[in-house]
Amino acid sequence: MPTQAEIYKTEGDKYEALIAREDYQGNILKALTEITDLENRLVLDLGAGTGRLTCLLAPHVDSIHAFDISEEMLRVCRKKLSKTNLSNWKIDVADHRQLPIDDNSANLVVSGWSVSYLAVWYKETWRAELEKWLTEMKRVLAQNSTIVLFESLGTGNDLPVKLEHLKEFYIWLDEVGFQNKIIRTDYKFESIQEAEELSRFFFGDELGDKVVKNNWVILPECTGVWWLKT
């Protein structure tokens, strides 16, 4: 079974099939509009993947620039945006900690289920990596800007759960001043077969078995929203 890191490198289309089922109630956009005004925003989407947030925000903002380290993920993102009549988007391969853009050139950063990987993939230097990222955010953002992060609080749970492998990341977010709230981003699949296949593909056998046991066409998911005004 491929790891999530391997999926990001090679499985863009199947990953998109999963993500297309997420947040069927539209709580992500609602949360964003409650945190900040989207009008006149120059947005950076970090770890954009197949374009979940980029495609959601593009119709509502002045411009959006999507970044990811995976060209495979961005291939799907580019394909989706090319089918729209929008022209206010750009896509580039880049690391969160070193973006190829000018100082003070944006006023909103969004990132979904991505910045936390700096804590997961760099176990020995996670704090330094997150500080590099935050320093880069302060460089690229103009004054009075906003950073909004979406991070997992448990897929397959009706109530939020602080995941063990992210416990230090949650603490760090509090330490540097992020506010937070909790939303539901449930998945709605077309069939129990699709729910099992896609859940097992990305989240693993434990969740796949849970989907079958509970006969879940709607898979519950709790998500934390963290934001910081710069």
Structure commentary:
With 230 residues, the chain is of the alpha/beta class. The chain has a single domain (4-229), classed as Rossmann fold, CATH 3.40.50.150. Helices cover 40% and strands 25% of the residues. It contains ten helices and nine strands. It has helices at 4-10, 12-19, 27-35, 52-57, 71-82, 117-121, 126-140, 167-175, 192-203, 205-214; strands at 42-46, 63-68, 89-93, 106-112, 141-155, 179-184, 187-188, 218-219, 221-229. The strands form two sheets. It has a seven-stranded mixed β-sheet with strand order 3-2-1-4-5-9-6. Strand 1, helix 4 and strand 2 form a beta-alpha-beta unit. Helix 2 (12-19) crosses helix 5. The chain is globular and about 50 Å long.
Which helices and strands appear, and what pairs or packs with what?
Layout: H1 4-10, H2 12-19, H3 27-35, E1 42-46, H4 52-57, E2 63-68, H5 71-82, E3 89-93, E4 106-112, H6 117-121, H7 126-140, E5 141-155, H8 167-175, E6 179-184, E7 187-188, H9 192-203, H10 205-214, E8 218-219, E9 221-229
Parallel strand pairs: 1-2, 1-4, 2-3, 4-5
Antiparallel strand pairs: 5-9, 6-9, 7-8
Helix pairs in contact: 2-5, 9-10
List keywords for this structure.
230 residues; 25% strand; 10 helices; Rossmann fold; alpha/beta; two-stranded antiparallel ribbon; globular
Instruction: Quote the average pLDDT.
Output: 97
N/C terminus separation: 41 Å
Low-confidence stretches: none
Count the strands?
9
| Radius of gyration over all CA atoms, rounded | 17 Å
Can you tell me the overall shape? Answer: globular
CATH topology, by name, is: Rossmann fold
- Per DSSP, what share of the residues sits in E-state strands of 2 or more residues? 15-25%
Strand order of the largest sheet: 3-2-1-4-5-9-6
CATH superfamily: Vaccinia Virus protein VP39
**In DSSP terms, counting alpha (H) and pi (I) runs of 4 or more, how many helices?**
10
The largest sheet, given as strand count, sense and whether it forms a barrel, is: 7 strands, mixed
Per CATH, the architecture is 3-Layer(aba) Sandwich
Number of domains: 1
CATH level 1 name: Alpha Beta
SSE arrangement, N to C: HHHEHEHEEHHEHEEHHEE
Category by helix and strand content: alpha/beta
In helices, the fraction of residues equals 40-55%
